[in-house]
Task: inverse folding
């Protein structure tokens, strides 16, 4: 009997369950393969007692349209930075990667499918360099993993953000207001830009293009005549003014390496007031609504293709690689290339040209 271990790491994302199901369905067509799942990333293997689930057809029945992940997830710690509490109450981190590899051997695991974003795939690459048979499956609502055309979960997040813009457009129009919608996207403005174009927003502010509040205000004024008019702005949480920094704080949560982004919309409201905006301004922060819930059909299909491909890569022994979508193919790329740089919005991106072409201001 051969064993493949599946895990989900990092922030959750619509479509994770559809990937898990596809791995199991594909594996069940081969003789002598068993799929097991580790709860909360690699924690399930490292915890005592271990938290490991056998994933058979019964375990994955009907999960393809469920949000979240039946294996749960974590974006804290991990095998290379496991948080440990000192006697004095302070915390430190230890490297448990060698222990992880030993435990996987004891479990009879031949290969690992790690479903996660850039942070998780960095862990995959380092474990691969230590001799583990790892395959990566990219996951992110932010669409910031490079070397793949897109990732599952992204289109669902765009749909949620677009629904929000649609709703905010009608209320902005009714009250002659400026309404700012803050969406996710720490480093990449893909969600913001897609939702702005789909929802017909007038302004889109993204991390890749620092904005000038005066230019944003000029755009607002151009939309008002004798005090009447309205403006919808979509801002990514990681957007920053020219010469400024992103609106983010260290949470102090043990093992949490990321910053917590919040406040970009509120800060923009204050900047607009300073720039002379006299209209009513309101803000909405969409937050984790973009990550939870049912994946749209596109993401379920992409997730199914990723899960199927991941197991085929196990059969081929294509370790140290990540599943990748290169239209019209589902293919693979070395993990090293995948983690080498993030997928950010660049000025030559087709959609940015379209957005500018239809009058969207990026505040630059
Ligand atoms: O990476 C996806 C993402 O949704 C970011 O856009 C956001 O900043 C972050 O996760 C929030 O993660 P959490 O609140 O789960 O730590």
Result:
């Amino acid at each position: 009997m051969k064993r493949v271990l599946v895990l989900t790491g990092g922030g959750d994302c619509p479509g994770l369950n559809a990937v898990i199901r596809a791995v199991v369905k594909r594996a069940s067509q081969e003789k002598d393969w068993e799929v097991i799942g580790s709860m909360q990333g690699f924690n399930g293997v490292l915890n005592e007692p271990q938290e490991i689930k056998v994933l058979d057809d019964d375990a994955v029945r009907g999960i393809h349209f469920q949000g979240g992940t039946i294996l749960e997830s974590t974006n804290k710690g991990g095998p290379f930075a496991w948080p440990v509490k000192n006697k004095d109450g302070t915390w430190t981190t230890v490297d448990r990667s060698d222990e992880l590899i030993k435990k996987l051997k004891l479990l009879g695991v031949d290969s690992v499918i790690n479903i996660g974003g850039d942070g998780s795939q960095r862990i995959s690459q380092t474990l691969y360099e230590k001799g583990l048979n790892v395959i990566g499956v990219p996951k992110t609502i932010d669409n910031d993993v490079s070397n793949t055309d897109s990732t599952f979960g992204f289109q669902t997040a765009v749909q949620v953000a677009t629904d929000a813009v649609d709703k905010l457009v009608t209320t902005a129009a009714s009250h002659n207001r400026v309404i700012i919608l803050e969406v996710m996207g720490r480093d990449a403005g893909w969600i913001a830009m897609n939702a702005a174009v789909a929802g017909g927003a007038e302004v889109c502010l993204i991390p890749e293009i620092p904005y000038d509040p005066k230019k944003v205000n000029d755009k607002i004024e151009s939309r008002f005549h004798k005090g009447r008019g309205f403006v919808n702005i979509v801002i990514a949480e990681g957007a920053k003014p020219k010469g400024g920094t992103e609106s983010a704080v260290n949470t102090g949560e043990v093992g949490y390496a990321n910053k917590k982004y919040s406040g970009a919309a509120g800060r923009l409201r204050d900047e607009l007031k300073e720039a002379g905006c006299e209209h009513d301004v309101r803000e909405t922060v969409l937050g984790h609504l973009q990550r939870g819930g049912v994946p749209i059909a596109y993401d379920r299909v992409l997730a199914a293709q990723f899960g199927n491909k991941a197991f085929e890569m196990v059969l081929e022994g294509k370790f140290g690689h990540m599943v990748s979508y290169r239209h019209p193919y589902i293919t693979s790329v070395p993990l090293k290339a995948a983690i080498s740089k993030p997928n950010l919005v660049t000025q030559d991106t087709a959609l940015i040209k379209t957005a500018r072409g239809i009058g969207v201001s990026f505040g630059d």
